[in-house]
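This follows on from our talk about sequence and fold. I would like you to pick a protein and set down its sequence and fold. Go ahead and set the record down below:
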Amino acid sequence: MNKLSKLFGIKYPLVQAGMIWCSGWELASAVSNAGGLGIIGSGSMYPDVLKMHIEKCQRATKFPFAVNLPMLYPDIEEHVKTIIERKVPIVFTSAGNPRTWTSELKAAGVVVAHVVSSAKFAIKAEDAGVDAIVAEGFEAGGHNGREETTTMCLIPQVKKCIQVPLIAAGGIGTGAAMLAAMNLGADGVQIGSRFVASNESSAHRHFKEEVIKAKEGDTSLTLKELTPVRLLHNAFYKEVIEAYQNGVSNEELRELLGRGRAKKGMFEGDLVNGELEIGQVSGLINEIRPAKKIVEELIAEYKNALLAMNNNKYKF
């Protein structure tokens, strides 16, 4: 049995990313019911909202699911308390030091994975006691690492440094890409952008439609001076580029970014003034589908790619 599937108690080594404003209980439960690991993205949720999403997810699926826990979240103590009280089996921590909460979560029986963007931070996460590591490459949507290391380079570098299961993320939106990542050393994959364009995603319909219209080159990583984020090219993104061209200071960037840009764009559907966070793989996404169908398609593509490889299609 695949060691990631064994660790999480799931059928397929396929994880749906815990994306802010896009990953509520409906998406998480749908992915878990389809054989993957669904994740509730708690970074946009007040403590009572997270509690509600966990309770609804537990009613909607009998299979394991997880909560993504950004370490910079202001009410993180309340989130941790809720996760432990509600017996959430798995937590994915990100955007911070994994030592802060890993021991407490594991003492409560929670399996902990941590998201990193470099081999250096992967080693630190393993030393902190996490059970698995997500190595996320430069191609990924949303908040990203400053190193700009692509997934193809990052996965083998991290694989050499750690013993715990490794999950590849960033730029993976097909079953063939899933196989490629696992051939590079990953035990499974985490996919975000493809699930944004799902029926169950809590993203606004306008945002989903922009995602399926996106073409190659329609996203860029920006705002590295604050928190690096990959965005679709809309009016807000163009404002940011113009500000850079005019020699903007970090303080002026913060004022331009303001508050609630991600919610405005992805959750409320303001395609002009909002942040539209999505990965480079959006150029391959051309329809909105049920999460179950997305999982089934990814696994079918994976098996077909594996069969082609085993039939010496790539022999030379």
Remarks:
- The first helix runs from residue 3 to 8.
- The longest strand covers residues 65-70.
- The mean pLDDT is 93.
- The chain is about 40% helix and 15% strand.
